[in-house]
Specification:
Layout (H helix, E strand, L loop, with lengths): L4 E3 H8 L9 E4 L9 E4 L4 H7 L8 H10 L7 H13 L6 H15 L10
């Protein structure tokens, strides 16, 4: 079982060469360090991803979609995340609903209920 996995746009590009060009590398990692080029993210629920992921370096595509959907309601690069979700769904990927619910609970615990507004300002 790996201690960290590449996820985000770099993982999407690994699995799907027609995905947009990544600008940085995102990791699921307890490390916590963030630089311009490398960002580490951790929720305790990410441990399940490390436990069930099949690839040793990159998050599996359906797990990537699940992670993206789990934080979609927050304004974390919202329009880019929306485009990524559409891209991944168009590839026929399915959401791991059980994991999605766990991740959503983790995001709510960490960030509260900060749902993005689609109404504009």
């Amino acid at each position: 079982m790996p201690e960290r996995l590449i996820f985000g746009s770099r993982a999407a590009k690994f699995w799907f060469p027609d995905f947009r060009e990544p600008k940085d590398t995102d990791y699921i990692s307890k490390d916590g360090k963030i630089t311009k080029d490398v960002q580490n993210y951790w929720l305790p629920e990410f441990q399940e991803i490390l436990d069930i992921n099949k690839h040793s370096e990159y998050i599996d595509p359906e797990l990537l979609l699940t992670v993206k959907l789990s934080h979609f309601c927050y304004n974390i690069h919202w329009s880019k995340t929306a485009g990524d979700i559409i891209f991944l769904k168009n590839k026929g990927l399915k959401v791991n609903k059980e994991l999605y619910n766990k991740l959503l609970t983790g995001w709510i615990r960490e960030k509260g209920r900060q749902w993005v507004s689609l109404k504009g300002k």
